[in-house]
Specification:
This protein is α+β, with helices and mostly antiparallel strands. It has helices spanning 13-17, 23-33, 72-84; strands at residues 5-10, 40-45, 57-59, 62-64. A hairpin with a 2-residue loop joins strand 3 and strand 4. 33% of the residues lie in helices and 21% in strands. A four-stranded mixed beta sheet has the order 2-1-3-4, covered by helices on one side.
């Protein structure tokens, strides 16, 4: 079964300057904690064109903005995890 999905973390200039790179290990830890290593790839994206809305990531057709170390887990739990696991 190859139902791998990809989450793209913006690492373009603006997101990088805002510390977007600090979100990568947090995302990897969330993926590991939920046992999604075989299901979810995390890749960098040069620019998601949402610079004015803060750090961002894209999953499927959705772009999530305004990410921080404080709100990343909530976003992952409520928005990404349900799309990866059957209800």
């Amino acid at each position: 079964m190859s139902d791998r999905q990809t989450l793209y973390l913006c690492v373009g200039s603006a997101c990088h300057q805002l510390g977007g790179y600090r979100l990568l290990p947090l995302l990897a830890a969330l993926r590991d904690r939920h046992g999604l290593n075989e299901q979810l790839d995390i890749k960098g994206a040069f620019c998601l064109e949402t610079c004015q809305q803060g750090r961002s990531l894209k999953f499927g057709d959705c772009v999530f903005t305004g990410l921080s170390e404080a709100n990343l887990e909530e976003l992952f739990t409520h928005e990404i995890l349900p799309q990866l696991r059957p209800v």
